[in-house]
Automatic annotation (TrEMBL), chain A:
<protein>
    <submittedName>
        <fullName>TRAP dicarboxylate transporter, DctM subunit</fullName>
    </submittedName>
</protein>
<feature type="transmembrane region" description="Helical">
    <location>
        <begin position="359"/>
        <end position="383"/>
    </location>
</feature>
<keyword id="KW-1133">Transmembrane helix</keyword>
<feature type="transmembrane region" description="Helical">
    <location>
        <begin position="240"/>
        <end position="258"/>
    </location>
</feature>
<keyword id="KW-0472">Membrane</keyword>
<feature type="domain" description="TRAP C4-dicarboxylate transport system permease DctM subunit">
    <location>
        <begin position="10"/>
        <end position="418"/>
    </location>
</feature>
<keyword id="KW-0997">Cell inner membrane</keyword>
<dbReference type="InterPro" id="IPR004681">
    <property type="entry name" value="TRAP_DctM"/>
</dbReference>
<dbReference type="Pfam" id="PF06808">
    <property type="entry name" value="DctM"/>
</dbReference>
Automatic annotation (TrEMBL), chain B:
<keyword id="KW-0472">Membrane</keyword>
<keyword id="KW-0812">Transmembrane</keyword>
<dbReference type="Pfam" id="PF04290">
    <property type="entry name" value="DctQ"/>
</dbReference>
<dbReference type="InterPro" id="IPR055348">
    <property type="entry name" value="DctQ"/>
</dbReference>
<feature type="transmembrane region" description="Helical">
    <location>
        <begin position="20"/>
        <end position="39"/>
    </location>
</feature>
<comment type="similarity">
    <text>Belongs to the TRAP transporter small permease family.</text>
</comment>
<protein>
    <submittedName>
        <fullName>Tripartite ATP-independent periplasmic transporter DctQ component</fullName>
    </submittedName>
</protein>
<keyword id="KW-0997">Cell inner membrane</keyword>
<dbReference type="GO" id="GO:0015740">
    <property type="term" value="P:C4-dicarboxylate transport"/>
</dbReference>
Amino acid sequence: MDTSYLIILALLLGALAATVPVFIVLFFVGLAGLGYFIGIDPMIVIEVLYRSMDKFALIVVLFFVLCGNIMTTGSIVEKLIKTANVLVGSLPGGLAMAGILACGFFGAISGSTVATVVAIGGFMIPALIRHRYPEQFSIGVMTTAPILGVVIPPSIAMILYAMVTNVSLEAFFLTGFMPGLLIMAAMSLYAYFYCRRLPDIDLAPKPSPAEVFKTLKDSFWALMLPVIIFGGIYSGLFTANEAAVVACFYAFFVEIVIHRDMKLTQVKKVVVSSAVTSSTLLIIVAGASVFGEYLTFEQIPGQITNAVVSNIHSQWIFLLAVGIILLLIGMFMDIISATIILTPILYPMLSRFGIDPMHFGLLMTVNLGIGYATPPLGVSLYIAGTVANRNILYVTKAVAPFLLIQLGVLLVLTFWPDFVLFLPRWLYGYGG
Amino acid sequence: MKRAFRFLDRLLGHVEDWSLFTAVMMALFAAMTNIILRKTTDISLYWSDEVVRKVIFFTTFMGASAAIRRRALIRIDAVPQLLPIFHKPLTVLSHVAVLVFAGIMIWLGLGMTILVYDDPFARTSTLQIPEWYFYSLLPLVGFMMFIRTCMQIVEDWQDWRSPTSDEEGA
Amino acid sequence: QSDPTAAWQPSFDPSKAEHTYILSNISHPAIEGVGVGYRIRDKVWERSNGRLYVDFRPLAQLGGERDVISKLRMGAVHGMLSSSVAAANVADKLGIVNLPYVVDTFEKLDKFIQDEELFEEFRQSPRRQGVIAVDITSYGTYGWATTKPVRSLEDARGVNFRIAEAPVNIDIYRAWGNRFTVMPWPDVPQALQTGVIDGLDHTPTVSNITGKFDVAKYFTEVNYAQGLFIHLINERWLNRLPADLREILLDVIAEESAKSRELARIQHEEQIAAAKAKGVEFIPLSAADRQRLIELAEPVYKTWGERIGADYLQRVRDSLEK
Ligand code: NA
Ligand code: NA
């Protein structure tokens, strides 16, 4: 291996560990590689920063972040939780299932996990404890269920994967529904059997049909949001990119005009804070583009591919090995950075192993999504810890059974591509 | 000194907040109008995509300056979380890295802006806006990031010196 | 789902080359006007006895066309087979080939390239940017691939065309009074599938090879321009190359580009036949409609004539109409 590669790698890992902002690390390493090791005019990095953001597809990041913030500021989130509760709340473990279902509802509108933890977990953890669910169980379920935010479309991680690989975003989104449902089903089953043995838990009385109807009516406008997003995309009214724009207008309209739970004066604050949040995500894409420029000029992805291909000969071993590596990376890195850095390296290998790029993209999303709740650096662990006022060790023990469930689902998804690709094939005519 | 700082903070805050708000709303309305017109009339706003793309570029870099103020830039803080003894030295190192980055943005960004300014063909493809307008945002943001980071260094410095806050205060 | 560049790996080990020429293109090497990059690579390697390696990177590996143009000017990329649409962003004069019914047939293209005086002026035009245009390859003749039949200009009014990001094309479509959307190439498949656009300004070769005819099953033979790749080289890099290698490179480019233009003409016919066999309907444009398009484009000839040089435009038109 070339010594310059080792220097670059050491610089990359060292600076990341030293808490330098991720985008600056990527920028420095790319600049060093391009300017020093290849000898290209360093001004090229400015060109790369500019062009990397000159992309229409990135509109979704900004506007899905905004849409999520509008809903949390207003009352859409609250209504989604109420709906979930009235539907499944009276079963054994019902409130926990309602929490999982609410994460699913919210996931169908929001693109990120952190937003889901804050919006649903912040409300549900205290509620579960109040209804005498075991505290560790309550924290565990509400820290891990928000993975649905990135698995169920829209999903920022999936958007970036589609952008890097050029797979059709509309079709790729469809891969997320079935795995999302599987995760919800597996977690709900666990909650059901776990809670059935516990007599102390307050069970909600079975709601009357009138109550169900009233709740559904009350949250009608909130529930229409995913319908509008996906109905619009798959009927050809607008593209997946434009869906984010429509979703924002709709959310503003519902919160300001119908629910009247948002004041016009709040609009500016929501817009600005969303712009800043989306900037912290997109600037990593810009930094990664500088680093990617270096990788491209040196043809490093090709070299890594050749090395991997000459050592691994089976598709299953490849998927398993990459899965484990991704889990380890996910323990330390957030899903956006990891997707943007790793996709260009992993993508060229897929065709050599006969792996479908959409299947792989979904596996990568679920895998890195699990990383949100893994120690030492799961963002969700820390948020949940703050909400419940518990330390990281306690939260880690709490999430363990649920992480095992999600890893089991990941294993199923890995070796059952037809399950993942069923919807894009059926609804979109995807040929993969 | 303190008042000058507070003034500068508020000035930069106003520039960041209002420009971000205006830009995002512009993109939102341009894109929505395009979707509606395309479905209901024969008119297509062929320039709306370009507006959106430029807004994405603008908000990303302008937002990065605002993110410094809010300490929101994404970083991997495993080491200080696990080994609190490294907290202070790494904070210093991280600030220095941002300052160096800001310096590079100013230096290379200005160079590139001048290069693009000299090229009469460097115009956006749809609206024919001279592209050096956009390139000049990069050295400007570099400058703003530099100032923001200096302010944070002073803030951290005062925090560390005051006896009320030490490690467990965080 | 296979890697399209895998079939084009070099049969030699390029790591010992003294010089490397990084050549970029956005499109698929199955198109003759693109595949020429690999043929240039192999012939230059042979003639230079392994001293000069042409590192050809098709399929937008080095970025979109506007990115690569900047990198070309900075010397980070040394050469580029730039689509004629994008090349107009380097120098106005290069945009002459995009004007409707100027260089609209394979014959006129050959005639233009063989006219030493006119073509030399074209080649030198981007020099202010540190770039020279050395040669041209083709990917066919432009028309409209649409999801519903367009048999007349009136039919065309009901279509939302996707056009490339180039000022000259925007001006042409505005003058023609057609609806259009400026859209990056990677967004086209989903936009076509979902009906955001229902027409495509492109050539039969590209429409067929990239699968656009699976959705757009009609092609109106507007034949208003040739789809071209202009071979651009960073002049500073070229001048630093040893004189003997420079001569080999330029000779090979000229020889292989001429061959590839001939291959492109054959490919154009073959791809149309293949598309027809799949059920794509090809619709000729009537002479009256063609005349109408020329008249409507009058303001474009005027404004772009000023930027290209009215005299040069006139000389090219006269010479090619003869
Ligand atoms: Na989601
Ligand atoms: Na983690």
